[in-house]
Amino acid sequence: MTERTRTPQARPARARREPDETVDNVVRTERLGWSELPNRLRLALLLAVLGAGCTVLGLILGLVQPAPAPGYSALPLLIALAVLPAVLAVGAIVAGRPVFAAGVLMGFALLAPGRAVADLQLAWDALLASRPELLVPTSLAPMSPAAGLWILLAGHVLVALAGLLAVGAGAQPGSAYAEELEVPAGTSDRGGRRYLIGWALVCGTVATGGLLLPAFYSHDAFQLTPEVVVSPSLVLAGGLLTIAAVVLGCVVFTASAVPPALARGGLVGLFAGVAAVTMPAIVAGLAVPRLDPAPGPYIALGATGLLVLIVYLRSEGRVREADHSRTELLLEANRLHLLAGALGIVAGLAALAGGLGTQLVVEAGLEQPESFANRQLVPAGVIVGLLGAALLVGRWSAAVRPAFTVSLAAVLVVGAGTLDAALTGAGISPDVHVGFGVWATGVAMALAVVAAICAGVAGSAERDEVDLTEGRLNQPVVVPAGAAGVLAIGAFALPAVRAPDFAAPGIWSDFRLGSWGLLLGLGVVIAVCVLAPLSRAERGASLLLGAAAVVGVHLLEFPLTSGRAAGATPGPGTWLSAACLVALLIAATAALVGGSRRR
Question: Which is nearest to 94 in space by CA: 170, 44, 34?
Fold first, then answer.
């Protein structure tokens, strides 16, 4: 008898569910055996084990030669952190929880690319690597990569491949594993999972701050204090990839459409990856002479662990009755749309005041300086204000909300640059003070953050009322969105204005307050490019249009602010911003066309 023709009594554990079951039992009440696992998941598990083995072997063989002694006996800790995800995945398989195992592999694999790029610094110049768990130089003698380094990098590649194979894991429709992956309509713990996306954004942001801070403080001339923003190029690139992976994992694994077992496994794997990055530095700060602990690793590890704890506590809640929950959620979403829209309008007006108001006030007798950095606040304020007004219209609110939420980043990106220029100017002389425009900019940024949180919670409430189990990859969007994500790296990381004796805030160099805004804009655009192909067509298009607004405001930096430097010419960031804007608009068009065809 085929799966299609079985009677409801064939699997009573799935056919009869009490309304007060917990989320864990709602998804599945029986265990899956090894024979029911897809071949891709078996291969992913094998690659994860091989990756852990390569990592351990590389550490044992040595990564550089001649190799200075490490700061402490870190090999047991490094081995334990390397094999932990594979052990957790194997244990979950043995316990009959393969979806949890797949999540662990996916979560840990997210950090593999960033760790691999950072480890490449050992091959390029190990003296600048700042890895006391591996080596503490005692001289400036050059070191060359050893065979163990390439084996270690191969381990990272295998771990990343294992995570890719675990996505979906090739489940056959109607199989027991496919049913384990499904989120049955009406059984999601709406009350418990409604605010998880908000917690994910908070914990991801806090973890990002922790990873950007120094891993430890060094008083050793041969051991530099590791700080991402002033690190060598490979360490900087690896650190930024790791930060992006942590934020992406926090958001993806708390989406309402993710099965609870997969979400918990993914966050546990992500936590294991963050531990592999931070724990060696934590121990080094405590155990190595002339090194002191720094708060960064503790913050990153604590924020990720807090999110895991919150997800586990939420998943223990009981399911509400569908009709009462649906009415409550819709009312709450409408209220949040109104609140977010009102906040957006006020934030837009404050941004306009910041863009048109005086940034610096000078004492009598001094020439009033002309302000340029705040001029981009005017288009940013107009966009946010108009989208906020559209959010107040009930029939438009759901479609406009993703674009509105993303576009708020434009206020933060430009606001950070504005405050950077104003505070720098105010520090030149005691006769120069910040003006009304600076305070208006600060208010606009604060309101933008609150509006984004309200819109995000409203979106989470709406997703709880939509059956997303049939969701699939929007393939026509993948290529243009991927191209936009790649172009965004250059658009925000490279200078938009070039002029003699002029240095604007940057990501790779001259990192200061305005650079945080560039990092935020880059992270938001990349996150949109990842999420849009996985979203419903209309929501994906709205996300992409919001990202286009952020990039468009950034594109206006040269025409609006070039007057601040003599001989200014468009920099590579301007041209790449234009190309990124075009790619985002193409992706949004592809999403809308694809959605119309499916309907």
Answer: 34
